[in-house]
From TrEMBL:
The lineage of its organism: Bacteria, Pseudomonadati, Pseudomonadota, Betaproteobacteria, Burkholderiales. This is Putative glucose-6-phosphate 1-epimerase. It comes from Undibacterium pigrum. It catalyses: alpha-D-glucose 6-phosphate = beta-D-glucose 6-phosphate. It comes from the Bacteria. InterPro entries: Aldose_1/G6P_1-epimerase, G6P_1-epimerase, Gal_mutarotase_sf_dom, GH-type_carb-bd. GO terms for biological process: carbohydrate metabolic process.
Length: 274
């Protein structure tokens, strides 16, 4: 597995694994690490990385016949381009296409592209999928972002009030999020439909603005005590992470030959004093 380091002109940095085009680390300019990475993650070819930003494609979780969360996160992506862009942002563009192995489990011809860009206090990840074949296909997808948090007990997630969600833990559907913000006090695994353009994760020292452009759903996941059963999660790791995922799951996407779809998630750190 190869790693690429990005450094923007203003000092923001990121580390990306070629497997999965997986952002493993992101440090905003003058800031500290913002992505959670399990100390027990194997970093082994073909094994999913526990932390950072896994790209889920073309299947979310076990909602189909493919391996969990699809094959994109365990596949080697091709680096198409990297360098400095407008205003000194550092950019990397990765691509994944069909190959013989993938065609045997998902018989569709496609091109997926992930463009990662960092500048100042922001990280943007833009995913595109194109149907380059001659038959329709459908898929579900997510940017499975693991946000690093100082203490999960002091975190609140704002922007979900009034939305309906599927509670993956209880199996209940159409639950209403009545509270103005969500606090995490145990295993939490929810798919919110009609995700808003912006969520905010509040901690005492900072706010993380989580922008969504084009994804239909938002997933919130923390394994709580169930983390003990996740063999690549270090002890206590669940206290220091919250996944806030930009996703399209509840209504799968469908692309006709020649059609493409794109969406992005942008994270921006704002100090508590601002
Ligand atoms: O352990 P993984 O295959 O990486 O999946 C980790 C988690 O991903 C998502 O957030 C799902 O909603 C969870 O149900 C799942 O447990």
């Amino acid at each position: 597995m190869n790693f690429l380091s990005l450094l923007s002109q203003d000092g923001a940095s990121a580390k990306i694994a070629s497997q999965g085009a997986h952002v493993c680390s992101w440090i905003p300019a003058g800031g500290s690490e913002q992505l959670f990475m399990s100390k027990s993650s194997a970093f082994q070819d073909g094994v999913a990385i526990r932390g950072g930003v896994p790209v889920v494609f073309p299947q979310f979780s076990n909602q189909g016949t493919l391996p969990k969360h699809g094959f994109a996160r365990t596949s080697e992506w091709k680096l198409l381009q990297t360098g400095l862009a407008e205003h000194g942002a550092a950019v990397a563009v990765y691509e994944l296409r069909e190959n013989i192995a993938r065609l045997t489990i998902w018989p569709h011809v496609f091109r997926a592209q992930l463009r990662i860009s960092i500048l100042g206090n922001a990280l943007q990840m833009a995913l595109e999928v194109e149907n380059t074949g001659d038959t329709n296909f459908s898929f579900t997808t997510a940017l499975h972002t693991y946000l690093a948090v100082e203490d999960i007990a002091n975190v609140s997630l704002h922007g979900l009030q009034g939305l309906h969600y599927r509670d993956t833990v209880s199996g209940a559907d159409h639950c209403l999020e009545a509270d103005p913000f969500l606090r995490i006090s145990g295993e939490t695994d929810r798919i919110y439909g009609y995700a808003p353009a912006q969520l905010e994760l509040h901690q005492p020292h900072q706010r993380t603005i989580i922008r969504n452009n084009g994804f239909a759903d938002a997933v919130v996941w923390n394994p709580g005590a169930g983390a003990a059963k996740i063999n690549d999660m270090h002890a206590g790791g669940e206290q220091h992470m919250l996944c806030v995922e930009a996703a399209t799951i509840l209504r799968p996407l469908s692309l006709a030959p020649g059609e493409s779809w794109g969406a992005s998630q942008t994270l921006e750190i704002v100090s508590a004093l601002d």
